[in-house]
Amino acid sequence: RKEVEQDPGPFNVPEGATVAFNCTYSNSASQSFFWYRQDCRKEPKLLMSVYSSGNEDGRFTAQLNRASQYISLLIRDSKLSDSATYLCVVKGRDNYGQNFVFGPGTRLSVLP
Amino acid sequence: NAGVTQTPKFQVLKTGQSMTLQCAQDMNHEYMSWYRQDPGMGLRLIHYSVGAGITDQGEVPNGYNVSRSTTEDFPLRLLSAAPSQTSVYFCASSYSGQGASYYGYTFGSGTRLTVV
């Protein structure tokens, strides 16, 4: 089993739709969680950190369920500019407490 | 503020050649790492460093060497290029310790390497 798994996608949605991304992780000792966004042929960029109580940033809402080892990202009122690949990232623990594991990503296309 | 700078952006190598991918950051981040990204595989960690003079192997270190003589620079060396090393390489940096829990990584723009 991969350490971080995501919906395989791609997701094709119309503008204005609400879309949800799911992510599961296998290491119960994981400490920190993030969603990254990666545009085609570009570097990944941090979208938001995911906190235990859940957090929201404008149209984006992230949730964490530690018991189920599950992370989600909800995008409301999708825009064309939201088209990208969304990466779930889990920070585990190594000797230095630094081990970011990336999921394979879920591609989103928002259609006019 | 340049962030993380990678050079070159594109490179074609012949099998058996060696080369160095450069990475520099100006944010005084202690933690730096190299990833490769292949279709359907996600980002895989090659090597990382938690400070000058300290490096360690990641998930896929074979065929690559790194060194960290300064906080700013973290070059990746391909010893003898193979077609299996055709990939996109990203350098990334972050705060160490508690900071990384909140800020994650800053990535360079990547190097697209083709080995023929």
Largest interface: A-B, 24 and 27 residues
**Spatial separation of the terminal alpha carbons of chain A:** 37 Å
List the uncertain runs of chain A. none
How many strands, what sense, and barrel or not for the largest sheet of chain A?
Answer: 6 strands, mixed
Content of β-strand of chain B = over 45%
Question: What portion of residues of chain B is helical?
Answer: under 10%
N-to-C CA distance of chain B = 36 Å
- Helix proportion of chain A: under 10%
List how many beta strands of chain A DSSP finds: 11
Low-confidence stretches of chain B: none
Oligomer: heterodimer
Globally, the shape of chain A reads globular
Shape of chain B: globular
Number of helices of chain B: 1
User: Helix tally of chain A?
Assistant: 0
Please state the structural category of chain A: mainly beta
How many whole angstroms does the radius of gyration of chain A measure?
A: 14 Å
Count of DSSP E strands of chain B? Answer: 11
Backbone structural class of chain B: mainly beta
Using only C-alpha atoms, the radius of gyration of chain B works out to 13 Å
Averaged pLDDT of chain A: 90
Structure write-up:
The complex is a heterodimer of chains A (112) and B (116). The termini of chain A are far apart. Chain A has strands at residues 4-6, 11-14, 19-25, 32-38, 45-50, 55-57, 60-65, 70-75, 84-91, 100-102, 106-111. In chain A, strands 2, 4, 5, 9, 10 and 11 form a six-stranded mixed β-sheet that branches. In chain A, 37% of the residues are buried. Chain A has 112 residues and is mainly beta. Chain A contains no helices and eleven strands. In chain A, strand 4 (32-38) and strand 5 form a beta hairpin. Chain B has 116 residues and is mainly beta. In chain B, 5% of the residues lie in helices and 50% in strands. Chain B has one helix and eleven strands; from the N terminus they run E-E-E-E-E-E-E-E-E-H-E-E. Chain B has one helix at 98-103; strands at residues 4-7, 10-13, 19-25, 31-38, 42-51, 54-57, 64-66, 76-78, 87-94, 106-107, 111-115. In chain B, the strands form two sheets. In chain B, strands 2, 4, 5, 6, 9, 10 and 11 form a seven-stranded mixed β-sheet that branches. A four-stranded antiparallel β-sheet of chain B has the order 1-3-8-7, with no helix packed on it. Chain B is globular, with a radius of gyration of 13 Å. The N and C termini of chain B lie far apart (36 Å). The relative contact order of chain B is 0.32. The mean pLDDT of chain B is 91. Chains A and B meet through strand 4, strand 5 and strand 9 of A and strand 4, strand 5, helix 1 and strand 10 of B.
